[in-house]
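It would be a great kindness if you could assist me with a short task in structural biology. A protein sequence and the structure tokens that stand for its backbone fold form the material at issue. I should value your view on which stretches of the chain appear to form regular backbone elements. The record follows directly beneath this note.
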Amino acid sequence: MSWTVVGTVTVAYWVLLFVRARVRGRREFNRAFHQASRGRAPGESFEVEVSTTIRPLGAATVVLAVPIALVVIHLLAAHGAH
């Protein structure tokens, strides 16, 4: 496994995480929008509130676990080849 493969897989993983977060965020917004719009007359204004919870340690683990594992595997494979 070369550094190019490690970098490519890492970027692809981060893109996948970004897309997944966007889809989840859009789903939560749509759910909140529909809940807020229920029982309202057409054209009547209303507010939409979407709560977010961020767990820094959990987020860092999800974002960094795969790239760190790939680097460790690459280094172990390179060390074993010598």
